[in-house]
Design goal:
Elements (H helix, E strand, L loop, with lengths): L1 H16 L6 H10 L3 H37 L3 H21 L27 H5 L12 H13 L7 H6 L4 H28 L10 H26 L2
Helix pairs in contact: 1-8, 1-9, 3-6, 3-8, 4-9
Amino acid sequence: MLTTLAATGFTVAFFHAAIPTHWLPFVLVARARGWTQGKTLAVAAFAGLGHVALTSLLGLAIAWFGFQIDEHAGELFPKVAGGILLAIGLWYFWRQLRGGVLHHHAPGGHHQPSERCGHEAEHSHWDEELKGSELVSNRTGDGAAIGGLFMMLTLSPCEGFLPVYLSGVQYGWHGFFVLSGILAVATLAGMMLFTWLTLVGFSRLPVQKLERVEAGLLGVIFTVLGVMMLLVEHGGH
């Protein structure tokens, strides 16, 4: 089960990192400021570490809370955790029906709700989001732009990975550290890959369409994970 959970965690983290909010802003800011490819990747990695750190910190709180429940609930914990995962899955399905996941917003940017229908517009919503933002303004230096990108991503943790931490409670601190390592590797790998691909010219990557269906796919993942936990618990008896 831990191997399955680890594979699920990697899928969730890598898939989440493939969403354009995790790499496209770095590319657009780099082009506006004339950054080199190496500097752009370094800034993306720096922001990715902050993203992973805050997510892991939240995961630590969830793990500690889960340990307390596990201590008192005993054999009931898999049922409780499985039920919570099913509820989270249903919540993601509802979120998908409501229009998908929320975007990260650039500091000082001007967000305009998208009304694209039937096909993707030629440019991402980030082209409009960054207009007037301090991230590309000539009035601010690179330090302010890097800090803005770091805070933008750090303060938007990978919410889809948090239920994975709950699933790993039954494996103790070992499970927590394994999942945290997987979160870091998958997130940074995804961010670096898609940032680099876009920098070298693959600007029409279809992963931008994932923004529309991210919530639905996460709903499927956590519904399946919840059912698996319930089945494993039932099989143990």
